Amino acid sequence: MQNAQNTIDFCKTGEYYQYISFRKFRNSCFRRGAYEVREEKKKERIFIMRKFKKALSVALVTAMAFTSLTACSKNNNAGNGDTTTTVAPTSSSAASTDGETETTKTAAADRTKPADYGSGTIKIWVADKVVDFTQAKCDEFFKANPDMAGYTVEIQATGEGDAAGNMVTDVQAGADIFGFAQDQLARLVAAGALMPLTGYYENFVSTSNDAGAVGASKVGNTVYAFPITSDNGYFLYYDKSVVTDPASLDAIVADCEKAGKNIYMEINSGWYQTAFFFATGCKLEYTTDESGAFVGSDITYASKEGVAAFKALINLAKSPSFQNGSSIDKTTNLAAIVDGAWDADAAKAVFGDNYACSKLPSFTVDGQSYQMSGFGGFKLLGVKPQTEQGKQLVCLALAEYLSNEETQLARFNAVAWGPSNLVAQQSDAVKADAALSALAEQLAYTIPQGQYPTDYWNDAISLGDDVIADKYDNMSDDELMKVLEDFQARQQSYAQ
Description:
By secondary structure, this protein is an alpha/beta fold. The chain is built from 20 helices and 19 strands. Helix 1 (2-13) packs antiparallel against helix 3, helix 2 (15-27) runs antiparallel to helix 3 (34-74) and helix 12 (304-318) packs across helix 20 (477-493). The relative contact order is 0.14.
């Protein structure tokens, strides 16, 4: 234990403090030109990742020598996120007689334990919907871990998209623990806003959650965040008095046209567009280096498969029943919509007794049928690097607790967020939820969303807007291929 403590003290007083100095040096560059500033930022990212990860990994590896027997006794099936085999999570156990879980009571027991964790305030950013829930769980955590109770939490309502932008703008002023959508991971890593998870915490993430969530928490081979949901995907809500065959997009459109009803899908969104392109076998993948920079791509939109998907997208938009959109609250005369679990209550209110949902349908192009695919998304919880060892350990233990099996189940019961935890997913309550069941069925056909350049999302908007404007209605297959060749070339250029 003493060696681990000495190593962490070195992190505090040695190389890691150079990071703080480097940030101050960077901030002095604001009067220089754009090129010089970009170069300094690039150097900073490299410096942060090399120095901070090197020092912290030594500390955590040393500490793991102290805790390896305990961790191994809990779970001998440490995975790498490439399998969906259900295993017992490392921090899950039966509840005690006083209502507190054993997980809560021992949250700090299996980790490096300093003589004094210190005191202060831990700033937490979460979605408005779960502010009260998060406060209650933090209270439980500190009650069960009095040696960490020198800290108080300050919880602010901050959307998953806004959190990343705020953190990147000013890491030091940002939250110590924050929720964000997985598509923001690369830019957060590049900004030095996330502490890499190694040892115990890497194992906790990898063995407790489904493969998609584990993959979403990584940049390269490094885990940077705690998954908390696997419900950020889309499927079909429909009025069963109108839609007779929810498995066929062609049949759905025909039923809507016959009934004078509308079908909604947001086809000018890069998120929803992939439902068509991934269905035919197209690829849209980027690779990043350990600093979060885009360094490679595998994109096959400019292909016969891409043309088939493009034609299906165009055919949908031609229907008089088609409406562009993905929010039930903004629909009129609704019979079917591609949407997510977050809109389940709104769908129930609109459809009433005719409420129904299912996986996405298939579509047919040139006599060939394709099952609609798309992105699967996740909510993650990140921990900011700290200069104080005690605060860092408390933040990690608290983030683990806010993402474990018991908390994910409690969060589902409170606000219906679908869990990423493998055991929680198998609970009767989760499996009984119609929307989450439809999503679970659809996830078999989806691609876990990785990291994508901002320019991709902008280009996808333009492509979809042109489809909606009927720009491509009368084009030949060769002409459509040329459109996709130009689109693909732009996407590839963002990783050069």
